[in-house]
Description:
By secondary structure, the protein is α/β, with parallel strands linked by helices. The chain has a single domain (78-296), classed as Glycoside hydrolase/deacetylase (TIM Barrel). Helices cover 45% and strands 15% of the residues. The chain has nine helices and nine strands. Strands 1, 2, 3, 4, 5, 6, 7, 8 and 9 form a nine-stranded parallel β-sheet that branches. The chain starts with a helix and ends in an 11-residue tail after the last helix.
Amino acid sequence: xxxxxxxxxxxxxxxxxxxxxxxxxxxxxxxxxxxxxxxxxxxxxxxxxxxxxxxxxxxxxxxxxxxxxxxxxxxxxxxxxxxxxxxxxxxxxxxxxxxxxxxxxxxxxxxxxxxxxxxxxxxxxxxxxxxxxxxxxxxxxxxxxxxxxxxxxxxxxxxxxxxxxxxxxxxxxxxxxxxxxxxxxxxxxxxxxxxxxxxxxxxxxxxxxxxxxxxxxxxxxxxxxxxxxxxxxxxxxxxxxxxxxxxxxxxxxxxxxxxxxxxxxxxxxxxxxxxxxxxxxxxxxxxxxxxxxxxxxxxxxxxxxxx
Length: 307
């Protein structure tokens, strides 16, 4: 009987343990199922209600600096050098010319009653003065006092030029008065250029003949050289002078510069200059002295024109 009682107790304990195990298993399955359901619900919620995208915060717009504008090309100017020949006879027309605001050059003849006074007045007015050197003409016309002839030898040419320049104090250079016989003469022009070289003067060829050799001789010695482009008053009438001045403006505009020659004894030159001077600025043309023109062309290293 004792053995039977012990066996019953053991069987009851074993059954209780199995029941507990089964209960734990059920609870575990329930937990797994619950977690699965929660996960499924979360997935459904995320799918049905997607998270709103966060809008980017507005960025403060900075005002952009305007694009750099390339600087405008500098306006190019053209130049006119006006030379007033034959000063020295009197001061009547010259004084009126000197009142004008334009920069120009006055060429003074030597050995005349008013030569030195004309040179001084030109300098006082802030203009440039040069010697208007008389030279022999093919026509045989008398060039006036201080003329260089084709028959003169080297020493005579040197003496004549020294005397002529003494009549025109402050002269920066010279141009020829007449000279159609002398300027084509290589020997004489070589002597003239040698004097100018030794005394630091320039030469303006009035171009009274197409046969002039002045340029070649000047280049040989390095003498600063320019040549006339337009005679203003071969026809002395006012309208003719005006048309020649306008022609000079066209030449300056096309080639960059032009040298114009008029004469002190012709009142039309001063009248036309006064009339057309305001037009020069509109056409981007400046009036400058010969020395200034030589400087701008790079022919001389120093601008001593004072304008």
